[in-house]
Amino acid sequence: MKLAWQDSDVLDMPTLGTRVTAFDGLTEVPGGYGAKLAWARNQAKVFRSEFTATGTPDSVATCDLITLPYPTKFGLFRASRAIAPFLSITNRMLVVRWTESDGRRRVLLFEPSDHELGQNTPYFAALIRRTPKPLQSLLTTEHGTVLGHLARLGIKPEDVDYLLFDHLHTQDLRRWVGTVRPQADLGGDVQPAFPNAKVIVQRHELMAMSQLHPLQQPWYQPETYQDVRPDAFLAVDGSLILGPGVAVVETPGHVLGNQTLVLNTSTGIWASSENVIAAECLTPEHSKMPGIARWARTWQQEVVLNANTIETTVDQYNSLVIEKTLVDRSQTDPRFLQFFPSSELTASWANPGTSPTFTHKAIAHS
């Protein structure tokens, strides 16, 4: 499949921010995945001490978008003994603002999902077709829209500098960044809702979109990227400090180009991605959900993956340990960490055995 940016120099664009060198050298680590795990844990400690010295952003706000069903076998990979085949997750957007050293103000949207178009993702489209409409309305709750939340926060779309996703599963960005040709399903020409925003994406994932592996195909909408504006993308390689207390850390595994937002706030360091769907999946020994603690104890595994696509499972485990090492403990309940799932497990009457032991629901910083 030919994509618009393949005729441009988008993949050669200079990166932004300051490169994080703490995670360089992983491919040169001698030994197997166990050696790489030890190295990753150590380097996360190195970066943690460096990152706290960068300062804090001006503000972080959390915006609920949609709660929807998700297979238990994916979200609580191998560990859950719940009888419910589905659990519920809530997708949220983080709005991060900071001031550069030269006084310029920046606005970053993390996970600004266009959930209306996201429903066309092959996996979810098939699930919707199999679910009666009355049941759909019971299991899915729309909380707000990206543009509606920004208006509430007093942010104009043209003031948004960056869009960031931990990965591009389910994402259709056409209404956010515009297209170079009319789109029949969207009524013709598509002007960007965020005319000045750049999408920060790992080069690995962007390049993979033109030729997906069969295991990836249910979760992407590659055809929606054929005509997107190529100058809307900032293809980056690895981890970057974007601003005071704001970083993107490469965390491959869930997809090859996975990335994690890391924030230094008034309560300490947070990380956010979809590598797990609940904070307790990073400290499963404290989970009260059926099977989770026992599974972790039996198999001596310290994390429970979110594994709808198992692209490189061991890498995802190692990436989770990086996230786990970077963050601080929750001030609400120190058994759990300040890891904020971009899609967080949410209790639902329809899904017995999947009610989380602990939820964050939001990151607040100002």
Automatic annotation (TrEMBL):
Top-level taxon: Bacteria
Signal peptide location: none
Keywords: Hydrolase, Metal-binding, Zinc
Cofactor(s) this protein cannot do without: Zn(2+)
Ranges in a coiled coil: none
InterPro entries registered for this protein in UniProt: MBL_superfamily_lactonases, RibonucZ/Hydroxyglut_hydro
Claim: Zinc is one of the keywords in the record: yes
rRNA processing found in the keyword field: no
Family statement drawn from the similarity comment of this UniProt entry: Belongs to the metallo-beta-lactamase superfamily.
Protein name: 4-pyridoxolactonase
UniProt organism field: Streptomyces coacervatus
